[in-house]
Give the backbone structure.
Amino acid sequence: MASPGVPAHAQQTLLVLPAFNEEGSVGEVLREIAEVLPGIRCLVVNDGSTDATRQRALDAGATVLDLPFNLGVGGAMRAGFKFAVAHGYRNVVQIDADGQHDPRNVLSLIDKLDSNDIVIGARFAGTGDYDARGPRLWAMIVLARIISRISRVPLTDVTSGFKANGPRAVALFAEHFPAEYLGDTLEALVIAAGAKLRISQVPVSMRPRQAGNPSHHPFKAAVYLGRACIALLFALMRPHVKVPPEVTT
């Protein structure tokens, strides 16, 4: 039965929130989603949290999938894609549990799935004032150029974790979503391009975390550059995989 408050195509969409020790933000993020997108289903993948993340998510009305230990964003998202396939969802939107992603942008990402398989919420596409500097910014620029060439579409933000995935991407990633460092961003896009999925982006604004610590501190920027290059190298070495032939858009 359709839920009021969101368009019909959004009824077939699952919002997946990977969460590791996000007790300070996940409840408020879910309440905001419920206000902005009433009726849309949220799955919180509790990635081995040792705090009250699970209970906060349940209290806010989300479905919670518990992982026995911390697998990282990639492992959490693969579990989310498998859940989506098992429960008949066509689309999956990845959204952070820390409040940086504005749920008001979700529908603009889903709308573009009509002609694309993956739509990235891009921080460097003319909207918002997201700030990155030094080696981290250089890495983002270089990586965007490389992935743009591989995917044959101009992209400005290939490390964004705010993405909408259509049916072909959901089917592919339920079996082949990478769990390595930056696998949920860089390697996933390389896999998608190799499978000839259509990739696009829409501009979005990012917000500060509501709680907790950022995953990359300024003094780690140079390390990020090196690790990102290694992650991309491994992604390019991976054999191409295909979307299951029975999947339709």
